[in-house]
Write a structure and sequence with these properties.
The protein has 329 residues and is mainly α. The chain has a domain of 206 residues. It has a two-stranded antiparallel sheet with strand order 1-2. The two termini are 38 Å apart. 40% of the residues are buried. Keywords: Cell membrane, Membrane, Transmembrane, Transmembrane helix. It is found in: Cell membrane. It is a multi-pass membrane protein. One of its GO terms (cellular component) is plasma membrane. This is Leucine/isoleucine/valine transporter permease subunit.
Amino acid sequence: MKAASVSNPETVQQSKRIDRALLVGLALILLLAIMPLLTEFAGGNYVLNLVMKAMILAIAAISLDLLIGYGGLVSFGHAAFLGLGSYVTGIALAEGTMGALPILGMVVLVCGLFALVTGALSLRTSGVYFIMITLAFGQMVYFFLTSLSNYGGDDGLTLWDTPQLFGFYVFQNGSGLFYSILVVLALTWLFVGRLAQSRFGRVLRAGKASPVRVETMGFDIFQYRLIAYVIAGVLAGVAGFLSACHAEFISPSTATWQNSGNLIIMVILGGMGTRNGALLGALFVVLIEEGLSLITHEWKLIFGPMLVLIVLFARGGLAGVIDRLGGRS
């Protein structure tokens, strides 16, 4: 006699939730893919450039969510990787390196090494001490970039060319750059989502809840967190590369703690540790900020209370709201 298989209701519910999140994320990416067609009827290049900016920040926010949402590591210096990525790109172009792949290789190397060294030091602390040391490293990068007088110093540097991919100017402003950013965004979203569901992600989440228990089970939580820190730094560096191509300008202000704070807001607003939270948060913040600024000069008086209300009453952020609406259907 065969024993009847009984499914755990919580497991089934979690599986349905993951499926809904996957469908919502794919729908968002599909909507972004047709955005160049939609902007031909309204907004034109202005709206398209705004969406590209939001997608670049979404890549950085997704990478930060790997630390905050899954690892419980609130980094207040994540924008430093954006700044490093953009400056490596700008300096390489200024010195005559035009190939996109060599420049990306340099971005990955510089950001990866910086993340490895600073992460190895920062992760020996926790809580508010971790926040403060990442803030210190971020400001260190900012002041270093302002000291580069040969590359504009405080004023930044205008880029007179863009990288080439196999001889083609794919990263010039237009549909080529738009779809390049979209491809990187989609790959980042897929990669981080898959990583979060893997054993690596489960260990990282368990370490967020109880690092001592994870250690007693035989996992080196420091090593897992350091790997996550390096991955997040590299992904943010790639976002910096795309930012430099999009703006055709690099500035030390990219690495300020205010930009790190904006990334944290995007992650919290969208929903920490959710598949689509950082993506939703970045799109929402950039588009709402721009929309309100067109209505009134004092748009921050509206935007601030709006953020507070969403955080207080939208449990799980924007991703949580969408999940609950999908669960009712």
